[in-house]
Every structure is written in C-alpha cells, then in structure tokens.
Amino acid sequence: MNEKILTDRYDINVRFGETDAMGVVWHGNYLKFFEDGRESFGRSYGLKYLWIFENGFYTPIVSIKCDYKKPLYYGEDAYVITRYRDCEAAKIQFEYEIRRSSDDVILAIGESLQVFITHEHELILTSPQFFLEWKKKYLE
Amino acid sequence: MNEKILTDRYDINVRFGETDAMGVVWHGNYLKFFEDGRESFGRSYGLKYLWIFENGFYTPIVSIKCDYKKPLYYGEDAYVITRYRDCEAAKIQFEYEIRRSSDDVILAIGESLQVFITHEHELILTSPQFFLEWKKKYLE
Amino acid sequence: MNEKILTDRYDINVRFGETDAMGVVWHGNYLKFFEDGRESFGRSYGLKYLWIFENGFYTPIVSIKCDYKKPLYYGEDAYVITRYRDCEAAKIQFEYEIRRSSDDVILAIGESLQVFITHEHELILTSPQFFLEWKKKYLE
Amino acid sequence: MNEKILTDRYDINVRFGETDAMGVVWHGNYLKFFEDGRESFGRSYGLKYLWIFENGFYTPIVSIKCDYKKPLYYGEDAYVITRYRDCEAAKIQFEYEIRRSSDDVILAIGESLQVFITHEHELILTSPQFFLEWKKKYLE
Fold first, then answer.
1. Domains in chain B: ranges and CATH
2. ipTM greater than cut 0.85
C-alpha cells in the first residue's frame, strides 16, 4: 500500500438544466461531477480514458456511493477534489469531495471503484502492465 | 410523395430529475421525449435502431427543432405523437407533438431529420435497399 | 421494525441517449432507474412526491449506493424492483434491483436514504404525522 | 435594430457520459452546450439568469433549433460561440456555433428564442425596464 497521495481539484460547471424542481442540483448529477473529477485527475496524472483504451482496456465503474451533506443551489460555484486510493487488486479506487467554492464547505462525499475489462468486455483479474508502470511512476 | 400517414403515440415517463429550478421539465429533455417517440414508432412499424444497425447503418440526427407552447410540470402526464413524413431523399423525417394527457393540449411541437451513414461514418446519398423495402411495405 | 415487505416492479424505458461510448447504459443513469422505481413505488403504495409535498415536505436523497454486476446494452429490456426497508428514524430507505427482462439476471443493486425537510429546507428529526399514518396503513 | 455584435466564446467540458453507443456526443446534449454558451454570455455581458430572476422574471426557451454538421467524439475538445441577435420584441435571441478546438471546424449551429415571464409564469409582451437598460448599455 503506497503512501503518496495523488489529489486533483476541478472547478465544476453547474448547469441550470442540472437543477431540479426543489431548486437544487438533482442528486444524480453528482455522478457527473465525480466523472469530471476522474477525468481531470486523468489529465493531471496521465491516466486518461483514451490512453487506457489505447492500452486495450475499458475501466467501467462497478461500485459508486455518494453521501449528500448540503444542497448545491443554481448559481453557486463548486469544485470536486478527487483522491486516488491505491490497492493491490486490479482496481482503480477514487474518493471524491464536492465543495462549495465560496467557503470550501463540503456538500457531498463519494467513492467509486473501477475494474479493467478488455474491449471484448472480459474482466481482468491482475493489473495490466501499463497500469503497474503508471503506479510505479506516480506512487513510488 | 406518399399519402399514407404513419403515426405513433407513446406515453412519456416524466422523471423528477428532468425538471429544473423553474419547476418544469427542462427544455432540453424534450429531445429525449422525441427519441422516446422515434423508438416507439420504430417498434410499432418495424423501424428499430438495432434493425437499421444490423442492416449496416446508423441514422444520426442532422437537424432538430422544438417549439415550446406550454410548460410541463412534474406530476403531469404527457404523451408524444410521432408522425413519419415521407420524402424522396435518403432521409428519415419525423414530426412530433408533446401533449398533456389530461386534456390533450399541445405542450410542444418539433421535427427531426436523420440521414444514413455506414458503420464507418460515411454518408449515404441514396436510400439503402432495406429502407426502400420498408417504405414499400408500410407506405404503399 | 415491521415484517411486511412492500415491493414494486417497474419496467424501465432505456433510452438510446442513455448509453455511452462503451455501448452500454452509462452508470450514472442507473440513478434515474432508481428514481423510476421510487416513483412507481409511490404510485403503487400512495407515497407520491407530490403528496409528500402537499403535506409540507421534501424528501431529498442523502445517501445513494449502486453496485454494477453486468452491463445493460441498448435494445435490452430491464426492470427495477424497489423494496421499502422500514426503520424507526424519520427516514425513507429503499433497496433496488435492476434486472434484465429476458432472463431476470441482476444487473445492478442499490440503495437510497431520504430524509424529511420542510419547504424552507429545514431538516425534520421525528417522522411527520402523515408518514406515521402511511406506515400504519401499509406496514401493520 | 442594433449594429453592435455581442459574442462570447466558452470552452465546453465534454463528459464521457454525454457520448452514446455510436461513440459520439448524443445529439440532445448539444442543448446543454448551448446553455453553457448562454450562461457564459450572461457572465460576460451582465445578463445572468439570477439577475434576471432578481428583476422578477424567468426567460424560458420557447424555440430551439440545431443543425448537426459533424460528430463530436469523446476526447475531442470543443467550444461554443454564442452571439446575441437583437430584436424589437420582448425576446432574447441567440445564435450558436459549436466548433472543434483543434481546427475550429464547425460541428453544429443552432439558435434559441427566449421570452420573459413573471415568477407566476405570466408572459410579458413588452420588454421589461431592466432589459431595455441592459440593451442601452451594451448595444448602443
């Protein structure tokens, strides 16, 4: 288990169409913000979806969780903190915090788990070589 | 130009998450209702996406239009009327009406235009054989 | 803790626009299917959002979880099983199963937790009277 | 009719979940990009939704149009150009271009029309004072 902590911050673009009739961002849209976070993390640390794809894999989400602490109103700015959580298995784990920009208050926290599958949708149980190299480069 | 009119009716499932902070269905979501209408039409008249795909084609939308007459509130039921509009070109045209179920009042009208492209994303300028046969079967 | 089990089944309308570039339904859209399930449950057992609203409350989601077992491809039919899980607190808990219609295989399981807030967005710590009466009617 | 041209450019955040099973951005999501464009325009020229709201109005979309020229693939960057088109009526008209960032090629063009309604959803037929003042400030 590695000690280095890889963290990314991304300013979310909250769309009017993402609010609901309660006047706040619809809860399901937070999964888009997590995705924004993952993609921004990927750009920051060289772990982009397209690069994973070119290496022969998809990394679908197999588990996701979100705890909502405070609502996000339209017009408020927010950002997502994405933290990579290392593990031995052939998995990619992220933790997320959605925070209000004006005062850094946490609005939601979440986590996701991804696995590696081939382009033929076959599950891979040992970490692919390119991923081990990525870990070596960024975590050691 | 053919005289037969092919029309389908589909009861929309309006989701809470599709409303916005104005308390009504967000305007962009009507394009999902049009898609519901196209798919229901496809099931009714044997023109499903997957069948088109199996015949070697995609039929992407190249133009779409929507005029909004009255808002659709959460909790109201609505349906979409989808009407096929025949033309000589290698195109699929549909007209749509979104109507409130309780009183049949028109909430929105729209239209879409689709073309045929191969799986390699190449545009087809003459109607594919399977589509001509479909027309023969349903319009003549 | 009550013994009666309230369960609802709802056939999901999977939209083409809900798939992603992996050719399967985008994981975030399962939260819409859970919402479909909750709303269908509400219609089946008299616990509709609008009725809750008329009683003076919103019931926002404060926690959600989804485990993805198998992908859902465009063109496949699926349904959601929604199960109410009773608890003492002023909360509404649901469990969900997304199943493929053709063979009833489980594609995803999930759960959600909702709380009661007033229209002024104030959290309520004891179950509102109308909710206690609903429980009495349906669970005892 | 005014001669000044107000234009805004906004870099779109294309999400993976916004692609569809054809491997390109689902056509309906372009309306989100138009909304991104309108909101960015609003920030650039002092015409934000919340300011309009504080002045007593909503400005719902009553008509929208989009012509799709080329697909937008996941991983490609794009931006939206939003152009205000002045008119005498109590309406807000915008034209949009979605362009690929790498070569500025136009992927889609569109337009939208908005009207003014009160918070009670009553249509306003003459331009509200605050809007006339906005026009005076920015267009003359």
1. 7-139 (3.10.129.10)
2. yes
